[in-house]
Design a protein that fits this description.
Blueprint (H helix, E strand, L loop, with lengths): L11 H13 L1 H23 L9 H22 L20
Length: 99
């Protein structure tokens, strides 16, 4: 679980209670991860459609799609509770690979 979940809390007891609450919602967060996976697959399919390039605004649509996929990847990182985090490594800002 990323420390970002509890960084707004200063009291260790509050942090433990909040962390327990988040961990208690693991099933919901896993379902959210599944939904995000579906959304990402849809974005990949839209990205691969040749008809996207028939329009003069295709570059703007591609940029929008890239932003959507990036946001999805960041949310997936936040909701993956099994992630290990080091203090010197922030959330990834790399472009998603589609895996």
């Amino acid at each position: 679980m990323l420390s970002r979940w509890t960084q707004h809390l200063s009291n260790e007891d509050e942090k433990l209670r909040f962390k327990s609450s988040v961990l208690g919602s693991k099933v919901v967060l896993q379902r959210l991860g599944d939904i995000l996976d579906e959304m990402d697959k849809g974005a990949i399919q839209a990205e691969l459609s040749p008809s996207n390039y028939d329009k003069p605004s295709w570059a703007y649509k591609q940029a929008h799609n890239n932003g959507l996929r990036h946001a999805i990847s960041l949310i997936k990182q936040l909701t993956t509770l099994d992630l290990k985090e080091t203090n010197d490594r922030p959330l990834s800002t790399a472009r998603p690979t589609g895996d």
